[in-house]
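Here is one chain, start to finish.
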Amino acid sequence: MEVCYNQHWKRRWRPLDVGHRGMGSYYNKQRIAVARENTVASLNWAGKHGADYVEFDVQLSRDEIPVVYHDFTVFITTKRRATRAEGGKVMDELYEIPVKDLTVRRLQLLKMKHVQDLQALDVDDMEVSGLVRQDSTTIDDWQPFPTLQDVLHRVNPHVGFNVEVKYPMQYQGGKAELDVEYFEKNDFVDRILTCVFSHAGKRRIVFSSFDPDTCIMLQLKQNKYPVMLLTQGYFGDKPGYLEPRARSPEICIRLAKCEKLLGLCMYAKDIKISPELVGMARSHKLVLFAWGVEENIEILNLKQMGFDAVIFDRINEYNDGAQQNIFLSEERDKMHGKLQEHGVLRQVSVASLKNSANNSLPGGSIESQEHGVAHQSNLANVTDEAVGNLPEGRTDVQGQGMLHQVPVASQANGLLGDSTTQ
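Its structure:
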């Protein structure tokens, strides 16, 4: 039996910081992010700069493997010789291809470029190579289209995941996010859930989606992970969805309550214009995330309004390295308490050995002091062996009789977070 968290949310001493697609959208600011969005490197960098969760987008490839990528299509350029009327030169032809029509292998072979890559803002290959060496990562960590399985295994286990499940929707006016036949929704959701349940381990995970039916399916098909409905709101830059359950914040609140979802990811501009929505959602005891935040002052305001988490770009610029992942901090505090407790036991044990040595040798001589030190050294050697015999991720130092502080502390960074506190 596994613990169920789909109706559980433990509120911490501070609101959570969620890295949008890791370190954020690659090109939406004056300065390009250090790592491309939705890559293993970007997700890990966000965790190192204090992200408690990272948000990323998941959809299926042609071979029905969950991949991490935001857009439903990619643009592929090919070379062709122009006609005489076009000047007879070699020209680029641009083709838009749905992600669903390419296998994972072909997606990962694509060399991704952006129009701004031609400008001086781009991070060139030499810089990427330097970052790879500096960060002890592989070049694959910096490439787009990682599979969901790879992300689950290669991102720091203390970092929680907000998995946005992408399913194409209709816009008002008749257009669609993807105007081709897509995967059957049941099979689509099953593929993603199967991957998560097979590879997530003890990681903290929250599902979200703009598509209400996808959220309902995610909720009904499993009871381990919580599900949140993303609201597009009325004041976004993109065309409004035809589906009112994704567009209207008031309807979204009622739907989340009716379908027993954990809560909502609400659009920040809606909250700024209609702050009473927060009270309405809170009256139904819903957990609240905010997305679409661009300025640091907005992040602070939303936290003060009572939001449980805020999703935003460039988390390194907000935290400036001063704030640590909250789950890692909790784990270290827990370890520190246990080490303090056993540090006292160690001092008593060593003192008793010294007293015993002094009683057996004349006059508290230098030999007796050396004898006590010898006992302390032997104790350290014994506890070093105990540390080496610990099962991976074990934090029960008392159960192993570990009284030596230094070796245990050195392992604190590698311990998994406690999965019983989402």
